[in-house]
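*Target chain*
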Amino acid sequence: MPAAETLRDLLSEGTALTIVCHNNPDPDCLASALALGRIAAAAGVDERRILYSGEISHQQNRAFVNLLDVDLESLDPEAVRDRADGSLLAFVDHGVPGANNRVPEGTPVDVVIDHHPHESIDARFVDHREDAGATATILTEYVRDLDVEIDATLATALLFAIRRETLGFLRGATSAEYAAAAFLHERSDGDLLRQLVSPAVSGATADAIATAIENRSIRGSALLSNVGRTNERDALPQAADYLATLEGVETAVVFGIVEDAIQLSARSTDSRVHAGDALDEAFGDAGSAGGHREMAGGEIPLGIFADDAADGEKLGSLVETVVTARLADASGWRKRRARRERARSETSAR
């Protein structure tokens, strides 16, 4: 039986569907949740809700929720774990309880649809495609294959999500993304799409990006930048996107302290560096980290690096020292830098 039909049949067994987004959800996660909700409605599931935890602070994410009128609720971990019989639980754009979400570890999951790397996923229905450029691509296929009614709002949401996740079809895009975009294009709202692409940027976000640019440290083809303490979590991936475009830079990692955790965002075009593996190797034992070859992120509890008494410049300095050392060890940048320095020395000697 085709995967889309298998998913529909499973959904039709439930009396309700809870769709959990990952922490601080982005357009790919939100659009996928919207599409899965539409599929569930078509399958006869009357009660549907989309839950999230963290913040929606990136200006594009806020515009996405507001312009598309996405109905979101805060996640209550215990309520999700202890949900009523017949209530199905679905993850989109993430796959494991407790990893980039606040769902208690070991909670049974019914549906997982994702394109991020995972070692193991346990659910009744799993569509895990690491080669897909976006989770929204997979949901677009389901909507099309099941002939689910798609209005301009959903089409625009999915199209924008695919565009954003692949950086305008320049990062990780496959023929499936182009096929999905072709299907969605004629059904989407062009004016709404333009508003989502170019939302207003807050002054605080611009300041955080400026700090990342000012504090950049380039080591060979790798760039590291510490923005210090900030409330603008989503400025980190924006800064990483920009800094990765600098001449000579193949890998950029931006990190900072947000509330009680260290947030990291990495971008890489270096074929020798898998950004997700590098962050996981560096910080997997201390928090949650990982992602794709070209883009990755991480969140590490601040207590791992400093005692509660540390603050201000002392804390910032300690975080930078530990993060930089771990990244260098995990990625092999230190070894490659040493080889380059030896080569330059030998050339000078000759």
User: Anything to note?
Assistant: Residues 203-338 form a domain with the Diaminopimelate Epimerase; Chain A, domain 1 fold (CATH 3.10.310.30).
